[in-house]
Amino acid sequence: MKGFKMKVSQVRPPVIARARSRSVSSHLKLGRKNSTDSTSSKSKDPKAAAAAAAAAAAPPPPPPNTAKPLPQPGVPGSHLPNTSSHTLPNANGSSASAAANRVSVASAAADRRFANPDRAGAAPPIVVVSPDPSADQQHTISENGGPVTPPRAVSLTTRGLRPAPKDTIPISGKPPRKQRSSRFVVNEKVEIERLPPFNETPVSERAQLFIRKLHQCAVVFDFNDANAELKGKQIKTQTLHEMLEYIMTQRGVITENVYPEVVKMFGTNLFRSIPPPVNPTGDAFDPEEDEPVLELAWPHLQIVYEFFLRFVESPDFDTNVAKRYIDQNFVLNLLELFDSEDPRERDFLKTTLHRIYGKFLNLRAPIRRSINNVFFHFIYETERHNGIAELLEILGSIINGFALPLKKEHKTFLMRVLIPLHKVKSLSMYHPQLAYCVVQFLEKDAALAEEVVMGLLKYWPKVNSPKEVMFLSEMEEVLDVIDPAEFQKIQEPLFQQLARCINSQHFQVAERALMYWNNEYIVNLMSDNLAVILPIVFPALYTNSRSHWNRTIHALVYNALKLFMEINPDLFGEVMEQYKQRKLSERDHAVQRYEEWQKVRERARENCHGKLPEGYVDPEPTPPPPPVEDLDIMDLSMDLKAVSIDAEGPLSDLDESGIERVPMADPGMDISVSPISPYLLPRPAPPDDTSRTTMFKPKEMISRGANDRKVGIVETHNGLKYPFRLNFYDRPPIDDITIEEFETFALDRLRVLAEIESSYARNRTFTELTEVIKAICIKYLPLNASSAKEKPRDEERRKDHIGHFVLRLAFCRSEELRRRFVKAETTLFKIRFDSDDTKEKEQFLGSRDFDWVLATSEEVQGFDPPGRYYKVKWTRVPDLVEKRRVVLKGGMAYVPATEQSSIVAQEFQTHLEKDLEMTAKALPRLDEDTRLIPILDNLSKGFLAGVSSEWSNASAGAGDGLTADMVDEMAFKHFPACMRNLHMCLRRDKHLKHFGRLQYGLFLKILGLSIEEALVFWRKSFSKIQDDKFNKEYRYNIRHSYGLEGKRANYAAKSCQQILMSDQPGPGDSHGCPYRHFSADNLQSALLTMYGEQGLTSADMPEIMQTVKAGHFHVACTRVFEITHARQGVKKGEGVGEGESVTHPNQYAARSRELDKKAEGKDEDGDVVMA
Fold first, then answer.
1. What is the maximum span of the chain, computed from C-alpha positions, in angstroms?
2. What pLDDT score was predicted for residue 851?
3. CA 11 to chain centre
4. How would DSSP label each residue in 12-24?
């Protein structure tokens, strides 16, 4: 044995590490053939040992970049199928463990990916690790000396062996693999037979069949060869699916003898060595740029994960029995798999570990400790791990359930684990989850704020700007939940760091820091401590107001300074004076220092008689800074007094009319029509208004002089600013617009346009569509004729004008949005044109040059029907040509006067399409106010789910209210499909996941369920858990949603748009919109189950499914409402009232209750009050 050990160490000490660790995956090759038993190691063959050593010392040829190292061609017989193994002795000569580990040294070539470029010697020997037989098992040897049973990887004692340096080499020459298999311990080729299915087996034999199937699924196949053992892989896949369905549909099948077999099958398939990363020394994986590395064996792994999850979640699962098999070692093996590069596996691992943590109370502390160890290893050693984000997600849920007061162990975890996680370079991979965990701690214990903030400041990045932006975002979340008393403890170091960020030349860092002044709660904290904060940040704000290269920073700086000046003018003036005196003092000191050095310089020249020694030069010293004039500081004060809080810059950039001389991008003017382009930019507003923007003309317009001031403004006619109700929207509005007007005007118009598209999806005739849109326009977008003297015509037309241009900005961003916007706007224009009175219509047509003329009687002679015709080019009326409503003659189209509206609508459509294309081209240059971007983004989503109605701002019920006992009846009578599905899942599973609870809880809150009744309702619904668990894990969240905990915000229920666009449901989730997130078959079945008793039949489903297929989910929901409320008199096309579609779950429920009360002869009881 000594000779063997010496020979191996002379070549290079082998690396033997714990099985299933990353080092094993780098240095151990798990073979298919086992070594001989330790009893045979006593007879040593010197020739074989010498041959093995010579083969190991020979330089290997370069193998291809594959998962397995290729064998090295060497001395014949140097690597036989079964090499003699040896027992490793310890110091006193006994075996290294009670059951000796067997080691065989195979002379195989190392993979180039793991070779050390600095070491020119031979590669390390590859160690094959095999398990020991159990104490009661007789180890059998095959005829050629090898074992009959396939090998398994186990841990190997490393006592007495010297560790070798870690091999690292970057990949070069070949692109990284995107799919590969882990280092599985695959079985020898085994023919597995297809077992009979459960439904064809007698009940008495199913338990034994279940065990046999579990044994069958413990066979592991090699997926490196896609064509190998296809029959066996197919049988195993089918068997896994059969077992999955068996435990999901049958009760009482999980007996005590099943537990060890399930755990064994799970471990055999999943517990393996994770392969090293594709690029071990390069940049970390970036999910936005890199493709994930997928596991080749995933077809089997996925079903195994799903089976185990269903097994643990089964009602028959007995934790007391399972804890004998699911222990700490099981958890450790599970945690090692989190380093898998396949995101699908990490997602299943996250769910699996979370279920184990919830069910096994005895494992909770070990799980937390083990996760801590993973974090420590990641922070202080490797800085590489693929599963940190998933582990933090699990911890976020765990932290949420911590009991108060927090234990010392938990506080230590925060400061020694979570805070140091911020210093890792790959922070962006898991920062959202990390920030959530930190904020959860602060919501639990506000006294931790000082330690957290000081910890973040300790690890604040110096040169990594993207990371600094993340720190600023997290710090804002921390400040959102900090108490005023705790804020005072950290305000000085915090704002010193913020001042440095404001001074950053990276505009995103400076911009993110200045966005703190848009947070109302932080502004309140600053105003309460202004005497401390203002002197710290004023120098940075003043410097950037003059010198920063980015215009957006100038605007944000002026906002912040203006805000400070308005909060406390006296203090602001005092700090400004102090700043001026300090600058004067610094300048005086610089001048004094300059003069002193000048004296020294002159004295030196005198000492050398005016002649410098050879080799010396006398460079001119840097002159002192210019003197600071009082006027420089005073200009800032004057600018701030003249500029509103939302101004873009000082008055020096404005013309005599208060319009900024900076041209911006064109939001829609066709330059082929006019050389003058309109621009969108915030403009200074009166000092008493803090939220105004403006659309105004650019520098080119200003140069025309005072007489041309009306260019770009709607011309007046008969004393009216807007002479006609109809508008081609040639020029943008030039007016002061508040942010509220900017959003509400666009939303009201979008409600009309969304209903137009909804009407098309519901196959309404044009007559029906016109009636519905006229009714909605009266409500949201009234536009009275000029003859209506008592009506606010200019205000209505101003709203119409502004709303159109705001939607242009929102819908010019893609071809699909432009197409839908043009279709809806053209329809609205045609409806208005047809309903306009004749006189105003003629005046409007006369005001425009449409370039089409009235045909002469000779030209139209013989036309049928006779009458007036307009002559235009046929290419301008393609829709009329397609419908054969015109006469074509000589390349011209003769359009009857009855089709005049079609001609005008076609002109409007062509004009709008051009304008939108011009806006889209100018969009990259459009410097929009940062407050407008989220508004425009939300507007562009309005067509998908309809526009959120006033229900989006509804507060909790103030009438008779809703009690916990009433919810069941209400759900089956009045709830939309999304909420009824949540209710049914809650009743079935006695539980809902987080997003499901959030969606359903806020819906019930707005419906009138008080906080007291909500606690009763959720406690009764979660009947499987104990009171202490409910109070610890769920009570806080329920109170938080009612605004009684945390930030104490009165949260509104989710609208259809929010349900469709955010928090997409995953496996096992119940939230979301059934019309979008269910498969077609599941949706049909669910709708018939939910609404079959209310009149919905199979005959109605084709129409609904066709609407869903077209993507009009809210229209499908509206149609279901009409069918199920036909008994209350709702007709097709009426929607939830006046033809409107469903845009909010509470809108559906409230209208359903209203119809029900009317049918009973009752009035609406005012359960819900609109904010």
1. 124
2. 67
3. 52
4. -------TTSHHH
Q: How far apart are CA 932 and CA 1100, in angstroms?
A: 42
CA 1115/CA 759 separation, integer angstroms: 9
Residue 523 to residue 529: CA distance in whole angstroms? 10
End-to-end distance of the chain based on CA atoms, in angstroms? 85
Of 406, 469, 418, 408, the residue nearest 443 (C-alpha): 406
Q: Pairing between strand 853-854 and 869-873?
A: antiparallel
User: Looking at this protein, which amino acid is placed at residue 816?
Assistant: E
- Quickly count helices (H) and strands (E) in the chain: 45, 11
- The mean pLDDT value for 827-850 works out to 81
- In SS3 terms, 231-286 reads as HHHHHHHHHHHHHHHHHHHCCCCCCCCHHHHHHHHHHHHHCCECCCCCCCCCCCCC
Instruction: Give the C-alpha separation, 939 to 675, whole Å.
Output: 30
φ and ψ of 77, to 5 deg: 80, 5
Q: How confident is the model at residue 161 (pLDDT cuts 50, 70, 90)?
A: very low
Res 975: pLDDT: 93
CA gap 911, 1113 in Å, rounded: 31
Does residue 649 have a pLDDT over 80?
A: no
Give the pTM: 0.46
Average pLDDT rounded to a whole number, residues 1104-1114:
86
Q: Which helix (DSSP H) or strand (DSSP E) does residue 180 occupy?
A: strand 179-180
CA angle 799, 739, 548 (to 5 degrees): 135
> Does the structure show a pLDDT above 70 at 983?
yes
The tokens of 275 are what? 């392969």
Contacts of 75 (CB under 8 A, 6+ apart): 51, 54, 55
Cα 336 from Cα 27, distance rounded (Å): 17
Token readout for 837 is 């009175």
Residue 1128: the pLDDT is 85
| pLDDT at position 279 | 64
Q: Which of helix, strand or coil describes residue 592? A: helix
Is the bond into 539 cis (omega within 30 degrees of 0)? no
The pLDDT of 86-109, averaged and rounded, is 38
pLDDT digits (tens, 9 = 90+) for 520-532: 889 989 988 999 9
Helices of type H across 1045-1144: 1056-1061, 1074-1077, 1080-1091, 1101-1109, 1113-1124
DSSP, residue by residue, 528-539: HTHHHHHHHHHH
Asked if residue 405 has a cis previous peptide bond (ω within 30° of 0), the answer is yes
pLDDT over 90 percentage in the chain: 12
Q: Which residue has the higher pLDDT, 666 or 848?
A: 848
Q: Cβ–Cβ contacts within 10 Å for residue 1165, how many?
A: 14
CA 1040 vs. chain centroid, Å, equals: 23
Greatest mean pLDDT among 338-347, 465-474, 750-759 lies in: 465-474
Spatial CA neighbour of 1049 closest among 1057, 1059, 1062, 1039: 1039
Identify the helix (H) or strand (E) that includes residue 294.
strand 294-295
* 816-821 contact pairs (CB < 8 A, 24+): 817/940, 817/943, 818/913, 818/916, 818/917, 818/920, 820/757, 820/943, 821/753, 821/916
- In the sheet with 892-896, reading across from the earlier edge strand, the strands are 853-854, 869-873, 892-896, 887-889
Residue type, 206: R
- The least confident of 38-47, 184-193, 200-209, 766-775 is 38-47
Residue whose entry in the numeric block shows the structure tokens 């005012």: 1166
HEC readout, 696-736: ECCHHHHCCCHHHCCCCCCCCECCECCCCCCCCCCCCCCEE
968: β partners: none
Q: Which strand (E) or helix (H) includes residue 896? A: strand 892-896
What is the chain's length?
A: 1171
- Looking at mean pLDDT, say which of 143-147, 163-167, 756-760 comes out highest: 756-760
